[in-house]
Amino acid sequence: MRFTLDDILAARRRLVDVAIRTPLLQLHEVDDVWLKPEILQPIGSFKLRGAHNAIAARLEAGPLDEVTTLSAGNMSQAVAWSARRLGLRATAIMPESAPEFKKAATRGYGASIELIPRPEVMAAMQDGRFNDRPGFIHPFNDPLVAAGNGTIGLEILEDLPDVETVIVPVGGGGLALGIASAIKASHPDVRVFGVQPLGGSALAVSLAAGEPRTTPYDTFVDGAGAPFVSADAFPDLQQMLAGCLTPTDDETKSAIARLALRNKLVTEGAGALAVAAALALSRTERGRTVCILSGGSIDPPQLAEILRQHGG
For labelling alongside 280, which of 80, 128, 178, 204 has CA 20 to 30 A away? Predict the structure, then answer.
């Protein structure tokens, strides 16, 4: 997947008055960890940046009436929201098991939904079986999506020029590649770590093996982690990331509760992974760290249960 700093700068121009320039907030009572709350975007997720950039760039290239995406939830919402804003039809192909509130949100933004078994969604992300659909936007294997994500990296450097470490949730890798590309273009010494749940950490296993590997997937986190690594993205992830951190589900649930109760920020599992990983490192290991809060789409009963168990 090839894109440049110029592509990221072009994405930034397309996202003016569309994406919120999220602030850096200090983690409550931790003076060397900052939060980048992409949960404050209109759809509650960073996915808006990549989806809108990809659709807007395609419109610049020629006529477009319809867009399609493949996603467990957040990218579906992002494409639906952006398509409605740009006057296009949208279709989201989602797992049958996707949370009902994510399906409802996607429909609420005006998209049509096609439901297929979750294993088929995972397979399609790798084999491209839906890539010939009208205006198809891949959730991570798309340079325009990654370039949109890279605008987050530009903002981090402007707000915290002496940042030492950035921790980024990884599903397919488009967010990590975008942010790492933006940061390392001018600050090559900044360490960018991926983070996945221990129960779904194919990237960590693949980095250790030196080649893409598959792993079992057993975690409550549904917006990051995966049983596979994109063969297209892996060489770039291998080159650009300092490693992949793997917090446990209990550590991630504790981070969700901490963010909600102390910073008053509601995150889903994927959105809290970076904080869980940062808190597992010593101050010396992490340095001045920025954690990406990637999304806040959590089912209310699940949040209530996490607060009950981990909010003490």
Answer: 178
From 250, 244, 254, select the one nearest 224 (Cα to Cα).
244
How far is it, in rounded angstroms, from Cα 229 to Cα 212?
6
pLDDT, one tens digit per residue, over 61-74 is: 999 999 999 997 79
Measured distance CA(21)–CA(40) in Å, rounded: 9
Provide block-wise average pLDDT over 10 residues at a time, the chain (312 residues). 92 98 98 98 97 97 95 92 98 92 94 94 87 92 96 99 98 95 97 98 97 94 88 93 98 98 98 99 97 95 97 79
Angle, helices 143-159 vs 47-61, to 10°: value is 130
> d(Cα 54, Cα 146) in Å, to the nearest integer?
9
pLDDT tens figures, 106-142: 999 999 999 999 889 888 988 888 999 989 999 888 9
pTM listed for this prediction? 0.96
- Closest of 230, 228, 306 to residue 266, by C-alpha: 306
Rounded to whole angstroms, the Cα distance separating 292 from 36 reads: 5
Name the residue among 160, 148, 147 with its Cα closest to residue 187: 160
What CATH number does domain 5-45+143-310 carry, 3.40.50.1100, 3.40.50.150, 3.30.450.20, 3.10.180.10?
3.40.50.1100
Please check whether the domain covering 48-137 is classified as CATH 3.40.50.1100: yes
**Maximum Cα–Cα distance across the chain:** 55
Q: Do 135 and 167 contact (CB within 8 A), yes or no?
A: no
